[in-house]
Write a structure and sequence with these properties.
Layout lengths: L1 H92 L2 H18 L3 E12 L2 E11 L2 E7 L5 H17 L7 E8 L4 H10 L2 E6 L2 E4 L9
Parallel strand pairs: 3-4, 4-5
Antiparallel strand pairs: 1-2, 2-3, 5-6
Length: 224
């Protein structure tokens, strides 16, 4: 009888231990499930917040796209306006010889060299044997004929072109053969390189300045 009681007691202890063990594992599983559900809820909240942020971002991108389209339209209008202004300016600069240099050169020559200009012509053009030469401004003063090459912006390559024009002048305009050629380049401004090159060749340089037209290298270049 004692042996049966001991066995029953041990069985009860084993069952109790098993129940405890099962309870512990159940608690672990329950807690794990609760954490998983909490994490899932947190994840859902994060995804909802992310979705809202993406919607805001999408709206902002739409606004940005609209602004960019408006900017492109404005830039197109600005480009069209600038092209128009550049066209107007190009047409205006194309008349520098007629509108600025020709009217002002007699005064500049008189003031600088004390010579009276007796003749001024603009864009003189002549064709001989199928070849044509054109000179921007020709001014006659005393025993000199001033050949003036006019450019809104004077570039290095223009120097050699003018050298060729100068060399052909008497061939095309024999009526000036008794006069001495005074080569002149004229522009709104000159780079140091261009000014030095012209001075080295013995050419005068005329620039639009405080006195309207000014021979800016007159101290280094003398009349021939």
């Amino acid at each position: 009888m004692m042996e049966v009681k001991e066995r029953v007691s041990r069985l009860e202890e084993a069952i109790e231990e098993f129940v405890k063990s099962v309870g512990i594992e159940f608690n672990k599983l329950y807690n794990s499930q609760m954490r998983t559900e909490a994490e899932l809820r947190a994840f859902k909240e994060e995804m909802r917040a992310f979705k809202d942020e993406m919607k805001v971002f999408k709206d902002e991108m739409k606004v940005f796209k609209d602004e960019m389209n408006a900017f492109k339209d404005e830039m197109k209008d600005f480009k069209d306006e600038m092209n128009k202004k550049w066209g107007d300016l190009a047409r205006k600069l194309g008349t520098v010889a007629e509108d600025i240099v020709a009217p002002g050169i007699p005064y500049a020559i008189k003031k600088t060299f004390n010579l009276d200009v007796t003749e001024v012509s603009v864009r003189r053009r002549k064709r001989i044997d199928g070849e044509e030469r054109e000179y921007d401004v020709i001014a006659v003063a005393g025993e000199y004929v001033f050949l003036i090459d006019v450019k809104s912006t004077y570039r290095k390559g223009y120097l050699d072109e003018f050298e060729e024009l100068k060399g052909d002048f008497f061939k095309y305009f024999r009526e000036y053969k008794s006069l001495r050629i005074v080569p002149v380049i004229a522009s709104f401004s000159f780079s140091e390189e261009i000014l030095k090159a012209a001075t080295k060749r013995g050419w005068l340089a005329v620039q639009l300045g405080g006195d309207y037209l000014e021979f800016i290298n007159k101290d280094k270049v003398k009349l021939p």
